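ingest -> fold -> write
write: protein_1
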Amino acid sequence: MAQIQSVTWPPSKARNQAAVRGQPIDAPRPKANSNNPPAARPAPDRSVIFKNKDTDRDGKLTLEEYLHQFPDQAEGRRRFPTFDTNNDGVLSEEEFVTLGKR
């Protein structure tokens, strides 16, 4: 017959309080309230981004201005024409802010 060894836990204020309240020491913690999901980050203000990218302040973004500090240049080159709804080779603030959708 195998012997069962007893387990000795280090001192713990939480375990002592649970024992005083008559709660099982190894009881699982209650689940977190899932009705309050973490707050979503606000959408970036695309008008502000446009103004920061429009380095010559002419109210239009060239491909070069659009790609400035763009993390993936190939992806930027792919996106640019999808925003340019009038196919004039530059993005107006409206085209940039609405992502080419009207």
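write: protein_2
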Amino acid sequence: MRATALAIVSTSLVAGCGSSNSTTSPTPTPAAPTRLTFSAQLSPANEVPAISNAESVAAGTAAITFDVTRDAASAITGANVTAAVNLTGFPAGSTITLAHIHTGASGVAGGVLVPLIPAAGSVTLTNGAGSFTQSQAIDGPTANSIVNNPAGFYFNVHTALNPGGVMRGQLVRTN
């Protein structure tokens, strides 16, 4: 019994003599992303005013990628914006003329901020459907505005029948 008590005391003393100078490595801050993605569900009902002609049944989606450049402090200094747009439900003969990112909350018409204009005649809506991809470089302040408040911006597509815009959707950040 006495040997057992001595073993317990010895073990406690040895355990208590351990070094208290443990160094914990700081958790590294993850690098800020260089690719940011957004989406927009495009609908003629979202236009201001809503579209009510033959193209009112069309629909679309836009997947928008910002490949950003950052400075040493990780602030965005610019971006290359790429929009991949898919369109369906257009009547025969519809022609896509323009596409943009605009300023403006839902239900508010705003000015063009990022032109993503497909070349004339490049978007063929075979059987009322088609797609296009466009890119545009933008500056840091413009990129930061969109990144910090995507709901304050919308993507829209224009047609020959609806030169003011045929469909639009607010930007939603997806990563």
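write: annotation protein_2
The helical segments are 2-16, 140-148.
The chain is about 15% helix and 40% strand.
pipeline exit 0
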